Amino acid sequence: MKEKQNLLRNLPKIDKTILSILENDRYKEIPYKELYLATSKVIQKYRENILNNKISSYEVDTIMKEIIEKLENHSKYHFRRVINGTGTVLHTNLGRAPFSQELLSHLATTLSGYSNLEFNLESGKRGSRYAHIEDLIVKVTGAESALITNNNASAVMLCLNEFSKGKDVIISRGELVEVGGSFRIPDIMELSGANLVEIGTTNRTHKEDYIKAINENTTMLLKVHTSNYHIQGFTSSVSGKELKEIAQEYNLITMEDLGSGMLIDFSKYGLKPEPTVMKTLESGIDLVTFSGDKLLGGPQCGIIVGKKHLIDRLKKNQLLRAFRVDKMSITALEYTFKQYLSEENAIKKIPILSKILEKIDSLKERAYDLSSLFKEKNIVSEVIEVESIIGGGAMPYATLKSYGVKIIGIDGNKLEKYLLGVEIPIVGRVQNNEFFIDIRTISEDEYSIITEEISEYLLK
Ligand SMILES: *Cc1c(COP(=O)(O)O)cnc(C)c1O
Q1: Fewest CB atoms within 10 A around its CB: which of 8, 238, 257, 416?
Q2: Using a CB cutoff of 8 Å and minimum separation of 24, what contacts does 127-131 make?
Q3: Where are the beta strands (DSSP E) in 5-88?
Q4: pTM score, two decimals?
Q5: Which of 156, 183, 287 to mutate to test the pocket of ligand 1 (most atoms within 8 A of CB)?
Q6: What is the mean pLDDT of residues 277-299?
Q7: If you measure from the C-alpha of residue 290 to the centroid of ligand 1, how many angstroms do you get, rounded to a whole number?
Q8: Dist. CA 153 → ligand 1 center (Å)
């Protein structure tokens, strides 16, 4: 009992502790309220633990350390840069498409002051935020017209609401997809007010299935690109071209949600063929929707391209106000589309594209470079062959041969956990309790950070 009272009495006092913390200039900027909260929280925890007999001793130094740790966290941003060593190029949890330094400096130049976001510099009067990029998207994709929203989910919803509210939309069962973050086509359709008519079976849908389902209430035939999975075996689906033929006969709108908007035909670089935005438009589909931050490699937004008379109607839909895209995305999207005016330039300037198309020899060389840096710091490692994934609900079964660097002689799970807690967290992969990073998603300026952090771990 006496023991307990002694422990309580000897706990650091809040006000004295704060004064001693303030002796260090580093913490002078922290508001008093934060200092008080951090200090009192830690001391209170010890007080309760003593009262509940959870502890029978403590070190004042440890208590101080805990308080300082809390204060250090105060100055850290919660949303931060991380190093992606997973090899998944479009990692949905790691922010999808990264921006280049050039794009970032363009953002800084454009947005550090006022801008002509909704101001027409020719007339000196009010302008439209959509005017900055419509012509550019049209030029690159060959579409008649274009419109953007804050993401692809809202692009799909806007189209369904405008053309099919209270009406039937026909879709194949094989295309009722759920993409990450629980975006489900059937749910979005319901929210838009459209009535979903499912046809065919999961693996096979024929032209006749569409025709049989058409009635006077039908307005649209919808195709959804199954971008995050692939049905193999006894399958059959109706092409965009066939869909267009049916639509013409019955005077219906055709739409395809492509998900990942590819503007470059990757098959000429040896990857599996996937439909590009241009190819889809050429098949005669009226409206095509896709994401800005998947294979396009730009900011989060949704892009709708297609027939002008339909897009003109979308521009007047009141939902567009709720789905509107902000100035940061507009700036980044204009920059991104500009790069696509030359394919060669796009591959050089858009990080996602350079990462996907990096040659295997270059990956191998970079893996050895990193491994050598490790060696200089006495980190034992081995260069290994790995497979990267494109990811992001894009190119479902496409894996890319790559090289990785595996750390030898360290508990992989422990290292993984440690590296998530460092200043610039490093996300790697662990197999059989061995930690490795895929070099494809690591850039050269990150080598030294990784080396330092792992070497720091070894010294502990
Ligand atoms: C990713 C994806 C979406 C959602 O796009 P967001 O830009 O994330 O809203 C919709 N449809 C398909 C087919 C997708 O792959």
Answers
A1: 8
A2: 129/324, 129/325, 129/327, 129/330, 130/315
A3: 83-84
A4: 0.89
A5: 183
A6: 95
A7: 7
A8: 6
